[in-house]
Amino acid sequence: MAMKTLTLNGSTVEFEPGQTILEVARAHGVHIPTLCYLDGCTATGACRICVVEVKGARSLVASCSTPAEGGMDICTDSERVRQSRRLTIELLLASGNHNCITCEMSGDCTLQDLAYSYGVDTIRFPNTPQPHAKEDMNPFIIRDFSRCILCSRCVQSCQEVQVNRAISNGYRGPTAKIIAGCDQRYDQSDCVFCGQCVQACPVGALIEKKGRFQGRAKDVDKVRTTCPYCGVGCQLWLHVKDGRIVKVTGVEDGAPNKGRLCVKGRFGYDFIYSDERNKTPLIKENGEFREASWEEALDLVANKFREIIEKHGSDAVAGVSCARSLNEDSYQMQKLFRAVFKTNNIDHCART
Amino acid sequence: MTNSFGEFGKARMFFVIGSNMTEAHPVAATFLKNAVMNGAKLILVDPRKQPLANFADIHAQIKVGSDIAFLNGIMHVLITEDLYDKEFVASCTAGFEDLKKTVMAYPPERAAEISGVSADMIRDIARMLASVKPAMLCYTLGITEHTCGKNNVMSTANLQMLLGNMGVESGGVNPLRGQNNVQGACDMGALPNVFPGYQQVANPDARAKFEKAWGVKDLPAKPGLMIPQMMEGLADGKVKAFWVFGENLANTEPDIAKVEHELASAEFLVCQDIFPTETTRFADVIFPSAGWSEDDGTFTNSERRVSRVRKVSQPPALAMPNWWIFKEIARRFGHDWASSSGEELWDNEISALAPALAGVKYGRIEQDGLQWPVPDDEHPGTAFLHKEGKFTCGLGVFTAVEWTPPAEVPDEEYPLVLSTGRRLYHYHTRTQTGRSGLDYLLPEETADMSSADAEALGILSGEMVKVRSRRGEITVKAKVTPQVPQGMVWMAFHFRDACANWLTNPVFDPATQTAEYKACAVRIEKI
Fold it and tell me: Fewer CB within 10 A of the end CB, N or C, for chain B?
C-alpha cells in the first residue's frame, strides 16, 4: 500500500496506512511512554499514559490504539500531554499501595520510572485502598492486588500471547479486579502456571514467590541460556545473585520463544540446588555405596573397562549418553566409546 | 523438524498427529494457537480430546495404532479425487506408482473401519488439506512410539510430499523433539551407526576422517547396539560393562521388572548423574555430574538450532563436568585429548568434523543460535530444509507402507488399551521437576479413563484402582475424564509407584528399536 505522510513533532514522516500513532512514532525513533501496551497484542488504550496531542482533535488521543492518518499533526510531548500523563500517574499512585520499599519490582517498575521521570512527587488525592486480598497460597505466583493498576497486560499475555484463557477482567468500577475463572485462586482455576502474566506485569502486582527477597533488578546479573526441559529450546534470562539463580524470565526478542515460557522453564530451575545432588564419586562395596576420590573411582572404571575389553572384546561394553546434557558431553562420550573402547555401542534415548 | 517454530505464526494450516503439544511442548503450542486465532486451520489427529481439540477445525479421534490406515485413507481420497500436487509429485519425487498401488487398498470406508474415524470425515480432511497450501504437519511420540513407528513417520512424509508441502516455508514434516538436547545428542553421534554429523561408521572414508582427527587407528566399522539390544545383552551376558549417563532407564524403559533384571545382570555398571535415581541403585560406580547451568556448552533444539547454555555456578562439592569425566577415562587409556572446555570441544572438534555445523562457532551464537545446516562461517543458517523440493538424496522417495496393528491388542482378559505420555507439570521421572516444587501442581499419577468404562466397572473418579497388564500391576487413582475415549486408559511415567512402565510392552519397531509405549492391553480392577 502507498505510504502516507504526517507531521510528528514538527517533522514530516512517512507511515504505512494501518499503523497506529505509537507504531509510527517508534518507527521514527520517537519515544512515547506506555504502560498497558503489550507488544503484539490488541491495544486496549486502558492506561492513558501514551496520550498525544493531535492538532484539531477534541481531546488527547491514546497513541497505542489510534490509527495514524495522512496529514495528522501530532505532538508527543507538549505541555498539555505531559500534564495529562502526570495526572494519570498521580491517580494511579493514589489508588492502592505503591510503597516501593520491599516491592520486588523496585528498580524495574514502569510506574516507578514514570513517576520519577514525570516528577510526580506529591499526590493531591486521598488514597483509595484496594479491596481485594492478596493471594499467596501457591509456591510460584503471588497476586498482590493492592499493587495492581488494572492495566490488563496480564490478561493479554494469558489470552492473546499464551492463549491459555485463564484470566480476565472482572467486576466493575472501584471493585474491578483481574480474575481467574469466576474469581478463583490461580491454583484452583484453569491457570497452567506459565507465569507469562508475571513477566508482563509492569508493577509489583504479580510476583514470583521463589525469588522473593532474593534480589531485585539492581542486585542481579542476567545470564542468557537455554531451557533444560523440552525440545523447543526456549531462551531464558537467568537472574543470578551471588552465583545463584533467583528468577527466570523469557528473552523477549530471542528465538525461538520470543519471551514466552511454560511452567517448567520458568519455575523448574532450582532442582540444581537440591541437597540430594550426587556430590562425590561413589563406589559400591558389599552392596553399599561409599564415598571415593575421583582418582580411585576413575581408576576403577578404567581398569574394569580395560579388563572386560581384553577378556571379552570391545563390543562387551556399551554406553547410553544423555539427551538432557550438553552437545559437548555427548560428543565426548561417543568419542570415548569409538576412539578408546573401539566399539560403536553408544546410543541415547532418541528412540524412546 | 524440516521447518521452524518461527514459521508457526505465518502458517495457514496445521495437521497435528500424535502430539499433545500444549502439555509436552507448551511454548510451541502458543504459536500454533496464535495462528489458529488469526484464522489458520487446525486438523488434530489424536485418540484423546487433548487441550488442542478446543482449537481444532476437525478433531479425528483415531483409535490407538491406526495411523497408517488413516493416513493411507486420506491419500486414497487425494489420489482418487485428483487433489494431490501433481507438479510436485512429478518433478520432486519418486515412487508415486508404488504409493498409489498401496493406498488404493485403503478406501475411506476401510480406513474408517480400522481407525474409527468416519469415511466422511476422512474425505473432509483430505479435501481441506488440498484446499490450503502449504500446511505444516507436526507430530510427536504418538507417531513414533509404536512397533510401526518408522512406517508411521514414512506415512506422514508421504502425505506431505503428495500435497507438495515440502521445501516451503510453513510446511514440512515437523517432529517436536521431546528433550532439550535429543536432537543434539543425535547430531553428536551418540548413535550406534553414525559419527558426529550423521557420517556413517560403515563408510571407510568417514572412518578415515575420524581416525585422522582423533589420532587413532581401526575405528570399528560395524554399527553398534541400540538401547534395547544393550539391555538384552546385559541379561544374556553379551554386554558386560554398561555406562549410563544421565538416563533413568529403570523408570523410562518399558516393563520395569524386565529392565531392572537386566540392569541387575550387568557385570559392571557405571552411572553418571546429578541425582541418585532408581537406575543408580544398580551401579557399581556413580560419577557425580555438573548439571544444567553448572557448565558451558550448547543444546540443539527441535528446529536444529544450536543455542548456548551458560554456566552461572560451580557444581556442588566434587561434581565435575561430564566432558571432563570422559576425558579422564580416555587419559587412563593413554589418550591425551586436547580440548578442555565446551568452547574448545565445539569450535575445534565438533564444528570442524560435522559439515552441517561447520559455520557454527561459539562466537556466532552469543545471542540467537544458528539452525543447521550452516556449511560455512558466512552462512546464516537454514530455517527450512529441502528448499524448492530439492531433497537430500535428490528426489523425495515415497515409501508405501501397509498398516499393522500394535503388537498387543485388547482381548477378553485385558480389554483396554493403555497409552502413555507426559503431563504438563512434570518431566519424565521427576528427577528435576520433583525437586522444583512442581509436585504442588501435580502430586500423583492417575489412570485417566472414560466415564463409560468407569461406570461399567463401578469406579468413581478419585477412587484407587488396580491397573494390570501381562507385565505387572500398579495401584493408582482413577480419573474419569471426557478427554479419554471408551476402551482406553491413559497414564504417564512421572511417578515411580504408579509408573506406566510397570505395564508397558517391551516390543520395538524393528528398524528403530523404539518401544511401543503408546499401545498395550490392560485391565482395570476395582479394589
Answer: C
